[in-house]
């Protein structure tokens, strides 16, 4: 009888230990971003964004759950820096260089200048921006070279859109000839133009940069390095077994190329 009780006690201890370890490794990870579809879309729709699907798959493999919401990008960075959230998704290094990044990119961003159909202007380097006023989104990074240009030229030649619908505002200003061009991610702009039936009215006018995209974790959260390492481990396997590419194809996207 005493032996049976002892065995039952040992089994109970093992069960408690397993449950305790699971509670440590299984976390709800809070990530914030702005609307950057098809990378990050509304949480209420069936396709929440290619980056969201990739990261959610990774976290599921590690037993975590994803808490994801859309808020303005600048606020997402500021609040994550303070430790309110675990990380931001869809980030370049330049967006938050003090944050914790994984090494393997989730995807790539091709930043492109867009103009009205009929415009003769093409981007061919910084010198081609002389006398050109273009629009960008507040808080975004557009690559080291363009970021420096924006900082040095200010409001006279760069219009900065903010709020919840910055791309909508930039396209409206472009149609009104208030600005000459819009600098935006290729996939994002093409997705938006298709949505508003303007794919033939606004066209590409030159690539400005080609940048890897990441989840950037809070510099003050104790598990940030662990989460970054977990993303690297699973993401490398996803790219080997084809699951990463299948998620891209769900959105009619191909690696580093424009939508079909």
From TrEMBL:
Q: Which UniProt keywords apply?
A: Signal
* Annotated Solute-binding protein family 3/N-terminal domain residues: 37-251
Gene3D superfamilies assigned to the protein according to its UniProt record, in alphabetical order? Periplasmic binding protein-like II
Entry superkingdom: Bacteria
User: Which InterPro entries does the entry link to?
Assistant: Solute-binding_3/MltF_N
Check the record and name the Pfam families matching this protein.
Answer: SBP_bac_3
Q: Record's family?
A: Belongs to the bacterial solute-binding protein 3 family.
For this entry, the protein name equals Solute-binding protein family 3/N-terminal domain-containing protein
């Amino acid at each position: 009888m005493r032996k049976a009780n002892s065995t039952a006690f040992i089994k109970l201890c093992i069960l408690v230990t397993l449950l305790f370890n699971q509670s440590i490794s299984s976390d709800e990870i809070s990530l914030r971003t702005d609307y950057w579809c098809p990378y990050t879309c509304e949480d209420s729709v069936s396709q929440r964004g290619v980056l969201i699907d990739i990261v959610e798959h990774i976290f599921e493999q590690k037993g975590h759950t994803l808490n994801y919401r859309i808020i303005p990008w600048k606020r997402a960075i500021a609040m994550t820096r303070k430790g309110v959230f675990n990380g931001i998704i869809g980030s370049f290094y330049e967006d938050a260089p003090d944050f914790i990044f994984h090494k393997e990119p989730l995807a790539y961003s091709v930043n492109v200048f867009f103009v009205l159909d009929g415009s003769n202007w093409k981007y061919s380097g910084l010198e081609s921006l002389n006398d050109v006023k273009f629009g960008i989104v507040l808080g975004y990074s557009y690559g080291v070279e363009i970021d420096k240009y924006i900082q040095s030229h200010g409001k006279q030649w760069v219009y900065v859109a903010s709020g919840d619908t910055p791309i909508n505002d930039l396209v409206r200003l472009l149609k009104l000839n208030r600005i000459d061009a819009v600098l935006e991610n290729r996939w994002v702009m093409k997705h938006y133009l298709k949505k508003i039936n303007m794919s033939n009215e606004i066209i590409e006018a030159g690539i400005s940069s080609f940048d890897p995209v990441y989840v950037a974790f809070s510099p003050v959260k104790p598990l940030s390095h662990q989460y970054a390492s977990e993303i690297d481990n699973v993401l490398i396997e996803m790219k080997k077994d084809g699951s990463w590419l299948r998620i891209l194809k769900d959105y009619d996207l191909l690696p580093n190329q424009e939508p079909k």
